[in-house]
Specification:
mainly alpha, 2 strands, 162 residues
């Protein structure tokens, strides 16, 4: 990663962001105003790359916490905004945030604050269960394999369920 935070970077971004200023850098909020639930952070990543390219190595070190805080805030704002919109449009009052991103402390706090204010029941698993979805997909595949279910070798990725 460009900041030298290692892999996976999300944990280190979260850690460093805790002592940073969320308003130090202006990052875009991709698809925030769109009337759908899709999101993409490729533009945000490009904006971060451009911001970093304008800073010297010493500026990066000094402002690393602020960069992480501002970047993380943009992501959290988009995710929680989409969650709010989904709850409003579907009139759902119980939601869950899962997967690796659910370990992010800022996302957890902002989501819990919103849920409490709006009287929405929110479930986020304990940190030990906030893992990348690849493990869950692997477990599901193992269970299907045990049942004798398998796919042909020419199967290709598809966003559609079968």
């Amino acid at each position: 990663m460009l900041l030298g935070l290692g892999y996976p970077g999300g944990v280190r971004v979260d850690e460093m962001a805790k002592s940073g200023d969320i308003r130090a850098f202006q990052f875009p909020r991709p698809l925030l105003k769109e009337d759908h639930f899709l999101f993409s952070f490729s533009g945000l990543k490009t904006a971060a790359l451009q911001q970093l390219s304008q800073l010297s190595e010493s500026q990066r070190r000094v402002q690393c916490h602020d960069l992480c805080a501002s970047y993380q805030e943009a992501i959290v704002e988009v995710l929680v905004s989409k969650l709010k919109k989904a709850c409003t449009q579907t009139q759902v009052n119980f939601v869950s945030i899962t997967g690796g991103v659910s370990a992010n402390s800022r996302l957890r706090q902002v989501a819990f604050d919103w849920a409490k204010k709006e009287h929405v029941s929110l479930a986020i698993p304990p940190l030990r269960y906030c893992t990348d979805n690849a493990a869950m997909i692997g477990l599901a595949a193992l269970q299907r394999l045990k049942l004798g279910e398998f796919s042909s070798h020419d199967l290709s990725p598809s966003p559609r369920s079968l």
